[in-house]
């Protein structure tokens, strides 16, 4: 079944993109509860029972197996959905958890939502181009230049 790509699809995609919070660097602590070698993915079980999904960005995914069932600290980038909820962690480093890191056993919240401004096409009648070559006052060019010259002295 063919998919129709029209202006409405583009507008919806832009709207979702504008709502999506920016990724951010995070540290998350939890028990490595699931490892999937084929997709380089894993899941952490947090102290409160919530699950955080992640993807190992570099290295051999077999590396994850040695941490299976253990508490670990994951350093990486939190990627968010347009709703602001966490989609996944892009893990750059994993290590054993030191004592006192239980504070990091929570879902990292988005800091802010990126708001991108809409850009509108500019024509001779709209935007910056509309006032180039025009002076809003009633002075002639000579009068304006003379006034500017007086300001310099």
> Alpha-carbon distance between the termini?
75 Å
By DSSP, the count of extended strands is: 5
Share in β-strands: 25-35%
How would you spell out the order of helices and strands?
HEEEEEH
The amount of helix comes to: 10-25%
Q: Tell me, what's the shape?
A: elongated
Largest β sheet strand count, sense and barrel closure? 5 strands, mixed, barrel
Q: What's the gyration radius in Å?
A: 27 Å
Q: In the CATH classification, which architecture of the domain at 7-104 applies?
A: Beta Barrel
What's the rounded overall pLDDT mean?
83
Tell me what you see in this structure.
This protein has helices at residues 7-19, 141-152; strands spanning 24-36, 41-45, 51-56, 71-80, 86-96. The protein has a domain at 7-104: Beta Barrel (OB fold (Dihydrolipoamide Acetyltransferase, E2P)), CATH 2.40.50. The N and C termini lie far apart (75 Å). The chain is elongated and about 80 Å long. A hairpin with a 5-residue loop joins strand 2 and strand 3. By secondary structure, the protein is of the alpha+beta class. It is built from 2 helices and 5 strands; from the N terminus they run αβββββα. The mean pLDDT is 83.
């Amino acid at each position: 079944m063919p998919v129709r790509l029209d202006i409405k699809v583009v507008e919806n995609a832009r709207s979702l993109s504008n709502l999506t919070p920016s990724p951010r660097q995070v540290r998350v602590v939890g028990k490595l509860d699931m490892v999937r070698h084929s997709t380089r993915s894993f899941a952490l079980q947090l102290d409160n029972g919530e699950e955080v999904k992640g993807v190992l960005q570099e290295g051999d995914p077999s590396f994850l197996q040695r941490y299976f069932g253990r508490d670990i600290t994951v350093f990486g980038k939190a990627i968010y959905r347009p709703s602001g909820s966490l989609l996944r962690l892009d893990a750059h480093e994993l290590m054993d958890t030191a004592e006192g890191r239980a504070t990091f056993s929570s879902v990292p919240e988005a800091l802010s939502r990126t708001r991108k401004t809409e850009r509108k096409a500019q024509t001779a009648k709209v935007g910056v181009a509309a006032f180039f070559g025009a002076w809003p006052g009633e002075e002639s060019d000579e009068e304006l230049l003379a006034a500017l010259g007086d300001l310099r002295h």
